[in-house]
Every structure is written in structure tokens, then in C-alpha cells.
Amino acid sequence: MALRPFAITIGLLALILPSSALEDIFGLRKQIYIPRCAHACKAAIADSPLECTKKITSPQCFAINEPYLQTLAFCIASHCNNETDAARDRFWNQYLVGWKSTTPRPIYGYQNALEKAGVPLLIMKDGQRLEQVSRVSDEDYHRAYSSLADWNESEMYHTRFALTIFLLGFLLPVILSLLRFVPFPGALSSKYRAYFVYPIVWSTRWSVSIRDVGDISPTRGQALFIFYMIAINTILSSTGHYALSHHFWSFDGRHGQLITCLANRFGALSLANIPLLFLYSGRNNILLRITNWSHATFLMLHRWLAYITTFEATLHSVLYLHVAVQQGRHTEWSSMPAWYCGSIGTIAICLILPFSFVAIRRRAYELFLLSHIAFSIIILVGTCYHISDLFKTTWAGYVLYLWFAIGFWMIDRLARIARIARNGLIRATITVVDDEYIRVDIPKAKATGHAYLYFPTLTYRFWENHPFSVATTPKPSPLSSPKSPLSPFFHRHSISFSKSDSNKSSSNASKYTLPERPKGITFFMRTHSGTTGHLRKRTSLPVLVESSYGLPKPLTQYPLLICVAGGVGITAILPYMHAHKGQVKLFWGSRSQALVNALREETWGYGGETIVGKRLFVKLALQREFANVKEEVGVAVVVSGPKGMADDVREFVCEVAKTRKGEVRLLDENFGW
């Protein structure tokens, strides 16, 4: 029995669309081969060679062959008594010879052919050469009719399953995110996250990548959703295939018809996944606000869904190529816009993957970005022409998924423009901190969390933008007072500094003087060879600020906040430190004393430890802190820094959360890209 998940889909759609819209827009009740009786007559004799047949029977051959026209006319008259003359004439003029609008018209009409046919006595057999007007056997006709009914059912499943994929891809994250509002006991929530959400799946390092290929190591929570995506696409691609019991218009019976049906299903599911790819990748993705999931999580899902979509699109094209070659129709089909436009789209979606490898993203990010945009446009345009040529529509049915993808892309871009317009064009001041870091001050601008900065006059690539964490935020207390009161639950460690012996840190620490705190926002950046390298050579320049993103999550229910930072990663957790009303402990490892001095005002007064120029042993520090906290006290741990540091924190939190009575929460504030 075929799976019917579209029943839930229709119910969900009924909440937002009237039933007529469901039928008209999505084609959930579409019917093909109308009138079916006439198409069954054609299918029953289509494989019979004609006098003009060469390797295959061409549309021109069908149009001029009198035995074919008369046999078909007599079959229609015998089985289509309930059809109107208009329906029969429409079939005769549009579908008798072929499916393209440019195919030749039959040499005479239906009524003329029926008169010429008379009452044939010869009964033709399936596949027998048709040399004179004949009757179609009842057995062949009914097999053809049932085959068309099954094929129509399969086509409806393609439509409904595609809609199921799309809707669940949008709604399921929302449904799963609602679990955060269920008042589970803190310890139970911690244990659940420690076993099923925080740990990575197949490595001791969450950020492990296949070198120069791609990031493939999700957390267990991400892996559960990835497993769902793989499972739902696998199930819906392998069920609901009725084109198995008959064998008309197929190159080798059941096998050929099943391949064609599978090809159509893979194409429909791949198409339904395309708008989800655009949705998950957007930095203004509406699901970010609704679900409270991180952008890094959606980017991880975007990458894995891209693998699935590419695999389905490739199978769709390869299977149809196989059918075309087996039927000897490759030359004919490849000249159709639907064929070569679809092929262009498939090639483009396959090329996106190698241009997205880690090697290119790290060493030539702009090449990755521009190729991503260019190939995405080719995919959308090629697929749109592919569908419109097949179904003669540009606004309904399968093409609607392309409009959803374009809509998601446009919403994201318009939201970016709106965020930029809040601050306008502002002149930024740049101060060199040391040989490794710079400080960028932007007066009058407003932002929290992190922002994307554009430097339109820095290079010819005026469109470049990169995310940076905002380092300065309003603080509740002055420099001379502690950040949070002492609590009977904790023992405060005094902050300590360990200076490096390296020449880089020591030589530059004395050169940097703390500028007056600006009224706007400040960013600290580690300079590399790209945009930040060019910034080091400037003292001021115009800047556009696209903000704000990555707003800090409220952690007021946790009496203790432990912050772990590496280098300039400190800027990502400063908002948590400043906003927290309870006890705050900071563990910061930095190679630069000048950077520590530059952020002295932002980090002063917090308990914990700051290490300069030496390794910060994160696990030992966390073990010491948890040993000084009562079992029932809730603890939140926020980390931002090198991948190794973040993985150590993740591993430790998972271990301690499994045994503690109080709730333990982990937030990883590293950027995902």
C-alpha cells in the first residue's frame, strides 16, 4: 500500500489556501491523458511498426500513415462513446501524432478517418506490423487504459510528495523548536542535550572536515535532522509507483516504465528541495527567528540538503538519458528545449559542489561566492525553461517551487538593504593594535551581536562583506566596580595574566594605547591577506554596517555564566558577559598582550583567568570551576575561539551534564560559513 503523507500536507495547506487554489496552483488533482480512452487506443498501437517506420516511427510517419489513422479512429469510436466531439477532435489535432506543438497535423481529420476505416475484421497483436486497418484487441486496450490510469496516479504522487518535502522542510524545524517551551526539569534537559544534541556524530572533533572537500561532521542534533532529510527523500522516491503492471511506450516492458517513473519522481523531489536550499542559506532566514536555531545549523543543513538535491537531479537526468538511448530517441529529444535546458540546470547544480569545497572557501572566498550566485541563476533559469516547455506554464505546478526560491532570495536581499539603511554610510577609524590585530571604530552606528561590514572604497570588489562581532556594548557598571556580586554558591577567582615570551606580543603591547571609548561601535579584527590586510594600511574609510545579527540568547535563569574565549573570539561573548545578572567567570587565552590591553575596560572585574602567550588548559579550568559550584546550580557555558578550544569545551560540557543535578547549557558562538 502506497504511503500517503500528502494527506497531512493538504490539511496544512487548507489553513492558508482555498481548495480551488490548491488544485489550480499546486496541481494536486491534476489529470493527464484526457480523454484517457483515446490515449489508450494510441498507446495500444504506438509500438507497432508502420510502412514508413525506420529505426523509430517519426511524427511525420504517424501523420501520413493511413492504416494507423484509420485503426486509431475506429478504436476511438468503439471505446469513447461518452466523450464529446470536441474532446475527440482536440486529441486528434494535438496528441495523435506527438506532444510538441510543432508536430505535423494528420493528413485528414477524425471523422474522415473513421469513414475510411469502415468495419475492420483483422485483429492486430501488440507489436505486430500494422499494414492495414485493424481492430485493437480488448485485452490490449484494457491493458493500455489501466497503464495510463496507473501513470496518472504516479504523476499525482510526484506532485503531492514534492509538496510534502517542501512543507515539512519549512514546518518541521518550527515544530521541533517548540520543544524548548516544554517545562522539562533542568537536569533532564541537560542529559537530553548531552546525549542527543551537543556531541558530534562520528568524530571527537565537531569541526572535523574532509580536507579541501567540505564540512561533514554535524552534531547529533543536526545529524537527526539530516537523517530525516535523507530518510524522507528516500521513502518518497521509492513509493507510490504504479507504472509496473503494464508495458506500453517503454523500451523493455516493466523495467523501462519503472525507470521513467523513477526519473520523474527524482526530478520532482529535487525541484521541491531547491527553495529550501535558498531558505536555509539566507542570513535573514525567517526560520532563524522562529526556531531560535543558529545560522551555523542551517548552513550545515543547507550543505547536506545540497548533496541530496544534486543526487536527485543527477539521477533524474541520467535515467532519462538511459531511456532516450534505449529507445533510440536521443537525437530527437535532445533538440527539445525541455531536454537541453534541463541538462544545463543539472550540470550547473553539479558544478556548485566542487566550487564549495573548503579549499576554495578558505583561499578564494569571493570565487566561491560569485560562482555560487552564477550557478544558482543558471539552475533557476534552466529549470524554469525545462518545466515551462514540458507543462506549458510559468506560474503554477512545479514551476511554483522556483518562484518560492526566488522569493526567499529576494526577501533576504531586501532585508540586507533595510539593515544597511539603518546606519547609512559612515566613516570608520582604524587603529593598529599590534602586528596581528586592528581596531575599527564606527561612530554613531548601532549594532549588537555581530554585523556584516562593507568597505566600498577599499578595493574594486565593492560588494564584499564579512561578519564581525561587536566588541563594545553598554555596560551596567563602571571600570572601578565589579561586574556582579559575590554569591554564596561560588568562590571567585581573581583574574590573572601570564605574559608571553614571544617577541610579537611583548614588543607591540607597549605600543598600543587605549583610545577613548567611542559613542558608536567597535570591532577588533585579526588581519589576514584579504580585506583585513587592506584595512591595516588605512587610517579611515567609509563603511556600511549591516546589523544586527546573532543577538545574544537570554541566560538569566542560570546563576553562573562561564565564558571561554580564544583570541579575538572574546568579542562574540562580551554581550553575554555584560548582560548577565548573576556570577560571570571569564577564561580567555590570547597570543597578544596588546589585544588584552585594548579590551581591558570590557573585561575588567570578571572572575576567571586570562592567559597571554601560553596555552589555556580549558578542561582543567572548567573542572576547577564546576568543582566549586553546588550540584543543583544551573550553569551556562559560552565559547568562542579556535575550533580545538570549542571542541574541548563541547566535550567537557557533555561529560559533566550527564551526571550533574543542575542544568548545564552550552552555546557555541563560533561563526558558521
Automatic annotation (TrEMBL):
SUPFAM superfamilies: Ferredoxin reductase-like, C-terminal NADP-linked domain (SSF52343). Keywords: Ion transport, Membrane, Signal, Transmembrane, Transmembrane helix, Transport. InterPro entries: FAD-bd_8 (IPR013112), Fe3_Rdtase_TM_dom (IPR013130), Ferric/Cupric_Reductase (IPR051410), FNR_nucleotide-bd (IPR039261). GO terms for cellular component: plasma membrane. The chain crosses the membrane at residues 161-182, 225-244, 256-280, 304-325, 337-360, 367-388, 394-411, 558-577. Gene3D superfamilies: Nucleotide-binding domain of ferredoxin-NADP reductase (FNR) module (3.40.50.80). Residues 1-21 form the signal peptide. It is found in: Membrane. One of its GO terms (biological process) is intracellular iron ion homeostasis. Its main location: membrane. It is a multi-pass membrane protein. Residues 427-480 form the FAD-binding domain. Residues 266-382 form the Ferric oxidoreductase domain. This is Ferric oxidoreductase domain-containing protein. It comes from Tothia fuscella.
